[in-house]
Structure formats: C-alpha cells, structure tokens
Amino acid sequence: MRLTPEELAARKRRNLALAGALVAFIVLVFATTVLRMKNNMDQRQAAVAAAGQPVAQGG
Asked: The whole model's pTM is what?
C-alpha cells in the first residue's frame, strides 16, 4: 500500500507534533527536578545555619 503525498504530509506533521510534545515533557521534568533540588539545597543550608552544625544526610 502506497501512501499519497497528502497522507505522507499528515504523517510528518503528526510525527513532528509528537516529537515536540516529547521534548516539552522532557524539559518540564528536567526543570522540575532542578527546581526541587535547588529548593532542597536551600532548605539544607538554612538548617545548617540554624543548627550551627551539619545536618545528617540520609533517606
């Protein structure tokens, strides 16, 4: 089965839209991760300053 030029163009548009959505999702996850890590580092620095000594790491 051969696709018509219109069908090929539609497929290309769908693929580009899907790729754009995937890139947007990756950027969103990356930005969220960076912001959460920065927030955690800021809270840790505040705890160290308040306690006057390092805070134990752990999970």
From this structure: 0.71
